[in-house]
Amino acid sequence: MTGTMNTGTLITGQHYIGGCWHGQPQAGTCSFNPALNQPLRWTFAEAGSMELQQVTELAESAAMPYRLSSRQQRADFLEQIAANIEAMGEVLIETVMAETALPKGRVEGERGRTCNQLRLFARLLRSPQEEVHEQAEPDRQPVPKPELRLRTVALGPVVVFGASNFPLAFSVAGGDTASALAAGCPVIVKAHNAHPATSELVARAIAKAIEQCQMPMGVFALVHARTHAFSEQLIQHPAIKAVAFTGSEQVGMHFQRLIWQRKEPIPFYGELGSQNPLCVLPAYLQQHSEAFAGQLFNSVVMGQGQFCTRPGLVFLLRDSASDALKAQLQALCQPHPASAMLTAKIAASYRQQVETLQQSAGVTLLAEGQGEEEGCVTKARIFCTNARTFVEQPLLREEVFGPATLLIECSDITELQMLLTTLAGQLTATLYANDSEQASVRSLLQALEQKAGRVIVGQMPTGVEVCASMNHGGPFPAASDSRYTAVGSRAIQRFVRPVCYQNVPAWYFE
């Protein structure tokens, strides 16, 4: 693929700052092809103190004029970005595939989701702005009531860190950027090191839209930086008013601590990990064991297990149906071929985690897939344990990022519910049950909603609908702030703050 892509004239390896592409690509900062386990031909610049000063000054200078742009203008801008992304056609698709080893169908679907997100926020902007307006009551006794309007204003410049596992939908023009731009905030994106060429192509689509829609030059910037120092300095800069991050709990909490140390603390919206527990009740499993096994295994290995909503914990009752399920999962897993993950670092971490699980007392490796593991390539695995072991070994409740899941067999519903109380916050929690299990369903759903931002019945958690009713977040560490969603139209609320206008004349809002 590296010899067939016609992207040589498009990928410069430079930063996009203030309407210009600049910076000298450095040797040894290559993009990488995980499927072929070899470097790609592109090299990239490294941001430093000069770029830090430029992006922050430009974003700060663009903040007021962009906030004062009309909702119609911002809607046109978002729609133009979507159109420009689509116009890139196969060049973008092939670049993503080369940098991620994701199949073409997955990449095309993610491109569609990315553009749909942009258009979702454009539609939101074209609807009337939400406000609470209360008329004055000058004759009210004993104190007159003033005229009051409650509206929102943009926070200011936002830093977005792209996610490794969604190179389009959670990256340069993904949901964080789309919602921040819709809110009226300039955005500085730190390109993810796993897909820098993809990041540049999408940034070019945004740069073109800035010119087409005559937006302020500082409304968007893309910087490449492989060292943590630049990111740390960026999020601590006084011009930055919010940060959006998708990644590990370790890095996310490091960023959160840096933000707490700022003279002016700012919102930090981090998605930091989730095991997405799934509960299946015995009556359902007895009737649908084979179909459920297929759905579960497909969900676990989808995208080589690199979905943030992969079901990593499966709770079930120990009986003949659970024995049948284990046999069915073994039959599905054993012939499943090894495949490449997004990066060698992610693959190495996965192998280390599953090795730790395999060596844990009371944990059984039920099955693993076929093939050799090296470089970015890993195999699927199914583990099994009991309730007591799950309680006694906290590491079993930690996220394993990759194509693996852990079955936890319980003696009864009471024990299952007790295990749920040991879990940290989750993006999703799922329940499979039939109509005869209604009494158990109610109590389990009540328990699950205490732990997750999205509660699902009868459907695997992988896949997130982008719409007004979606919530993609949850109690920590699923999200650093459980009150907000990273997906759907309500994601815009992360980047605005309320302002009450008292006796301000109506013409001011026109």
UniProtKB/TrEMBL annotation:
Show the InterPro entries listed in the entry. Answer: Ald_DH/histidinol_DH, Ald_DH_C, Ald_DH_N, Aldehyde_DH_dom, Aldehyde_DH_Superfamily, ALDH_KGSADH
**Aldehyde dehydrogenase domain spans which residues?**
31-474
Q: Which Pfam families match?
A: Aldedh
Specify the superkingdom.
Bacteria
- CDD domains found in the cross-reference section: ALDH_KGSADH
Magnesium found in the keyword field: no
Q: Is Oxidoreductase a UniProt keyword of this protein?
A: yes
State the UniProt keywords alphabetically.
Answer: Oxidoreductase
What protein name is recorded for this chain? Aldehyde dehydrogenase (NADP(+))
Lineage of source species:
Bacteria, Pseudomonadati, Pseudomonadota, Gammaproteobacteria, Alkalimonas
